[in-house]
Specification:
Layout (H helix, E strand, L loop, with lengths): L10 E4 L6 H31 L1 H4 L2 H29 L4 E3 H34 L4 H4 L2 H26 L9 E2 L6 H6 L6 H34 L4 H29 L9 H23 L3 H13 L5
Parallel strand pairs: 1-3
Antiparallel strand pairs: 1-2
């Protein structure tokens, strides 16, 4: 097949969602509602933590504010273009916009993973090392963990984007997905992508599985410590402090693992699309509600902020 150097490509097509045309009209109000809830929930979390001194001083909520910021960037990278294409007759994206979307998608998504690991480490220190918690989770260490969670994905995503910018495309310019994810873009390439695929199987997997393994180890130690607590009330209180974080971890990694860690196929099915919708739209929307609805500290902080800024509500 004929191929063209990537520098000569100006526009790519996005296949979108594998649904019947009559259902396409239902997707726009659904995804728009989800996106607005994501904006509302995560912006509320960030403002609440930044305006309330008690929450801001707690490492758990410091990391939560960064997680909310990463979720905002994650959804802003993909969802607005999805909404625009649902209304458009021709579902296109410019070549440079595709590279930019790929870069920010990977950067914010991997930051999510690192921040979830930082939050698991914080819970481990709080439950397993309570006497040394204040010293071990000092503001300086929290800033360091947050900086690593942002800087490492930024440079890692830049490496992938630079490599992807040199690939050539076949006659087909239709990306078999609803956004510019790395595997679907590789599917329409005519270049030798062995270097990129090796990186995905080594460095890329380590970047996602690395934080996940740290989370698993942290919670294994947490459960071991909790089970040694004699009173059932103490066990319940300890479990309640990390229950919401566990729910977010399971939701995020289960859907990501389905898409990226199963055998790759060029013919993506509806299950892949559903899983992609889950971690790009559903998880960022649910995170602030999972953390706030059953969290007494968040509710108390909301009341304090309302009393301080009554004109806000």
């Amino acid at each position: 097949m004929a191929s063209e150097n990537a520098t000569g490509v100006s526009e790519l097509l996005l296949r979108g969602f594998p649904t019947r045309p009559e259902f396409q009209g239902l997707l726009f109000p659904l995804f728009l509602s989800m996106y607005l809830l994501t904006l509302l929930g995560n912006v509320t979390i960030i403002l609440l933590i930044r305006l309330d001194a008690q929450l801001l001083q707690a490492p758990m909520y410091f990391f939560l504010s960064h997680l909310a910021l990463a979720d905002l960037g994650f959804t802003a990278t993909t969802v607005p273009k999805v909404l625009a294409n649902l209304l458009a007759q021709k579902k296109t994206i410019s070549y440079h916009a595709c590279l930019a979307q790929m870069y920010f998608y990977m950067s914010f998504g991997n930051s999510d993973s690192f921040l979830l690991a930082s939050m698991a480490y914080d819970r481990y220190m709080a439950i397993c090392c309570p006497l040394y918690y204040s010293a071990l989770m000092s503001p300086k260490r929290c800033l360091l963990l947050a900086a690593v969670s942002w800087v490492v994905p930024i440079f890692h995503s830049l490496l992938y984007t630079l490599l992807m910018s040199h690939i050539s495309f076949c006659d087909s310019r239709e990306i078999p997905h609803f956004f510019c994810d790395i595997y679907p873009v590789l599917d329409i390439s005519c270049s030798d992508t062995s270097v990129i695929e090796i990186l995905l199987l080594t460095e890329g997997v380590v970047e996602i599985l690395g934080p996940f393994v740290l989370i698993v180890i942290s919670y294994a130690r947490i459960f071991y410590t909790i089970m040694k607590i004699p009173s059932s009330t103490g066990k319940h209180k300890a479990f309640s402090t990390c229950g919401s974080h566990m729910a977010v971890v399971v939701l995020f990694y289960s859907t990501v693992s389905w898409v990226y860690f199963k055998p790759h196929s060029k013919n993506s099915d509806r299950k892949d699309t559903v899983a992609a919708v889950m971690y790009t739209m559903v998880t960022p929307m649910l995170n602030p509600f999972i953390y706030s609805l059953r969290n007494r500290e968040m509710k108390a902080a909301m009341q304090r902020v309302i009393k301080r800024f009554p004109m806000v509500v």
